[in-house]
Specification:
Structural class: alpha+beta
Number of strands: 18
CATH topology of the largest domain: Rossmann fold
Strand order of the largest sheet: 2-1-3-4-18-5
Number of domains: 2
Distance between the termini: 31 Å
Radius of gyration: 20 Å
Largest sheet: 6 strands, mixed
Strand content: 35-45%
CATH superfamily of the largest domain: Probable inorganic polyphosphate/atp-NAD kinase, domain 1
Oligomer: single chain
CATH architecture of the largest domain: 3-Layer(aba) Sandwich
CATH class of the largest domain: Alpha Beta
Number of helices: 5
Order of helices and strands: EHEEHEHEEEEEEEHEEEEEEEH
Length: about 280
């Protein structure tokens, strides 16, 4: 088996843990591959051929980076916390080797996390629309630009019109992403077993706009009203799409593969909710 390490290169403790883990794995006869430093090589692609386990060492942001490396391939992932939050991670520096050893032995709980397949059409100044596709584990978000203009857009689900909204934006989230931007915008915390999408309006100019959930087979579409000339930006897991272009339409559906996340038990999600959002650190 080959293990891919995805460390947070900006955190010395994470790098120290990665080197320690790499040495231990090699002593066990396991081939080790390191993901490159994305800040130094932003356009370099990580080859996952032959990788049987991906280990991220950092916070939830590092695990998100690992998820984008894995994509829809369903290679198992293990997150080790060297960050501030660690909501999605399974262990930390104190039980580094023990946790990875349990993962290699198949002793950890397997959590299937739904992903998103995102497609956004962008308007060019002098030319036809261009389309950009992206993987997302957490969410696709529509936000206003630096001028703070209100966006006017239509929301539809599987061809059925929901509403025309005016506001700061919209978040289309997975259950995993429900504890991120969607939660900050007023959406619910959703169990990872839920396989639909969580749709949350952001600061809309109406009291009737509410968050709603879709079925796993639904397709959500956001269409920008071209009559209002306002900046609008699309982000997949916080990363900008179509930089410098004006987004016109986003189509979001369930991705063709899940993220396979390893954790301690089926109750890990609720333990994390208790620890992060209710401050009960003694339960974890």
């Amino acid at each position: 088996m080959k293990v891919l390490l995805v460390p947070n290169y900006a955190r010395p403790h994470a790098m120290e843990g990665a080197r320690q883990l790499s040495s231990w794995l090699e002593d066990q006869g396991v081939e080790v591959q390191w993901a490159h430093d994305k800040k130094l090589y932003p356009n370099k692609v990580v080859d996952t051929t032959g990788v049987g386990l991906v280990v991220s060492l950092g916070g939830d942001g590092t695990l998100l980076r690992a998820a984008h490396i894995v994509g829809y391939s369903e290679i198992p992932m293990l997150g080790l916390s060297y960050g501030h939050l660690g909501f999605l991670t399974c262990g930390g520096p104190d039980d580094l080797i023990q946790t990875v050893e349990s993962a290699l032995a198949g002793e950890l709980h397997v959590s299937h996390r739904m992903t998103l397949d995102v497609e956004v059409e962008f308007e060019q100044e002098d030319g036809p629309l261009v389309t950009e596709r992206s993987f997302a584990l957490n969410d696709l978000s529509l936000t206003h630009g630096i001028r703070g203009d209100m966006i006017v857009f239509d929301v539809s689900v599987s061809g059925h019109a929901i509403d025309r909204l005016r506001g700061d934006g919209f978040v289309i989230s997975t259950a995993t992403g429900s504890t991120g931007y969607a939660l900050s915008a007023g959406g619910p915390i959703v169990t990872p077993e839920f396989a639909g999408m969580v749709c949350v309006p952001v600061a809309c100019h109406t009291i009737t706009a509410r968050a709603f959930l879709t079925s796993p087979s639904d397709v959500v579409e956001l269409s920008i009203n071209p009559e209002r000339h306002a900046d609008r930006l699309f982000f997949a897991d916080g990363q900008p799409m179509g930089e410098g272009l004006r987004g016109m339409r986003a189509t979001v559906r369930r991705g063709p593969g899940d993220i396979i996340l390893l954790d301690r038990s089926s109750s890990s999600f609720y333990e994390s909710v208790s620890r992060v959002f209710y401050g009960h650190s003694d339960r974890c």
